[in-house]
């Protein structure tokens, strides 16, 4: 199979990572969850009690941090942090960290390195517009904010008992606003991306729709 790259962008809770993971398995290509990279760095900053306005300390931490993927696990400084990066605390701080120029430069460099010599499916906010502008396929996956909130709530309530659906929807709206209005590579649909609204679609339907586009476009 010739080398391909698939960019999947969209707002929080649209189902991007679930869908990207299935596509990576079906096509036997590498999956890169770029949101997990911003989350891992945020986790480290929070654990080290770094003030998120203190750019100098953040830059220092950035030069002393390794973030890697192996077998669909995310490693922060050599330790698996799959669960720790999905807490509500990280959810509510990650967009602030992801706005920082030095953070984006460093993580985008790493994302491009991973994608440069193999086929990948990469999900995030700026993949089709900035990280991989020449991606073979670009999709923009979205859903109503109520539906996205419900999906996130279902995940979070298993581990965090004092959250409510209303609060989760409110927090998603705040995150979307920061992500789509920030100065550097904001969340935006690339002009050449295919838009998929998953509000009334199952995961399987969305995956099949994407695979059909890929088969026809190849
Ligand atoms: O995709 P996920 O919800 O895990 O992303 C977490 C956060 O990381 C986003 O809300 C956004 O602030 C940031 N992000 C980003 N660019 C990406 C991927 C994620 O700014 N490519």
UniProtKB/TrEMBL annotation:
Question: Where is the protein situated, by its record's location annotation?
Answer: Cytoplasm
Report the GO molecular function annotations.
ATP binding; CMP kinase activity; dCMP kinase activity
Gene symbol?
A: cmk
Record NCBIfam families:
cmk
Superkingdom, taxonomy of origin: Bacteria
Q: Which residue intervals define the domain Cytidylate kinase in the entry?
A: 6-215
* Pfam family for this entry, one: Cytidylate_kin
Keyword field: ATP-binding, Cytoplasm, Kinase, Nucleotide-binding, Transferase
Question: GO CC: one term?
Answer: cytosol
> What GO terms describe the biological role, i.e. biological process, of this protein?
nucleobase-containing small molecule interconversion; pyrimidine nucleotide metabolic process
The lineage is: Bacteria, Bacillati, Bacillota, Tissierellia, Tissierellales
E.C. number(s) listed in UniProt: 2.7.4.25
Primary localization class, coarse: cytoplasm
> Which family is this protein grouped under?
Belongs to the cytidylate kinase family. Type 1 subfamily.
Entries under HAMAP family matching the protein: Cytidyl_kinase_type1 (MF_00238)
Q: Which reaction does it catalyse?
A: dCMP + ATP = dCDP + ADP; CMP + ATP = CDP + ADP
Q: Which CDD domains match?
A: CMPK
Q: What class of enzyme is it?
A: transferase
Q: Which residues bind ATP?
A: 10-18
Protein name according to UniProt? Cytidylate kinase
């Amino acid at each position: 199979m010739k080398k391909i790259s698939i960019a999947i962008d969209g707002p929080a809770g649209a189902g991007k990572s679930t869908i990207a993971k299935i596509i990576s398995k079906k096509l036997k290509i590498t999956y890169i969850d770029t949101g997990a990279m911003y989350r891992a760095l945020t986790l480290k900053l929070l654990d080290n009690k770094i003030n998120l306005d203190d750019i100098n300390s953040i830059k220092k931490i950035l030069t002393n941090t390794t973030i890697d993927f192996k077998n669909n696990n995310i490693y922060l400084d050599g330790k698996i942090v799959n669960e720790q990066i999905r807490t509500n605390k990280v959810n509510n701080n990650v967009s602030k960290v992801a706005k920082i120029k030095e953070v984006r430069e460093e993580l985008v460099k790493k994302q491009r390195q991973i994608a440069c010599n193999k086929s990948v499916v990469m999900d995030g906010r700026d993949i089709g517009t900035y990280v991989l502008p020449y991606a073979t396929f670009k999709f923009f996956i979205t859903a109503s904010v109520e539906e996205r909130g419900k999906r996130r709530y279902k995940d979070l309530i298993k581990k965090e008992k004092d959250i409510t659906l209303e609060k989760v929807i409110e927090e998603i709206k705040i995150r979307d606003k920061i992500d789509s209005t920030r100065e550097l590579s904001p969340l935006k649909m690339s002009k050449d991306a295919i838009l998929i609204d998953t509000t009334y679609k199952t995961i399987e339907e969305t995956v099949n729709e994407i695979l059909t586009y890929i088969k026809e476009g190849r």
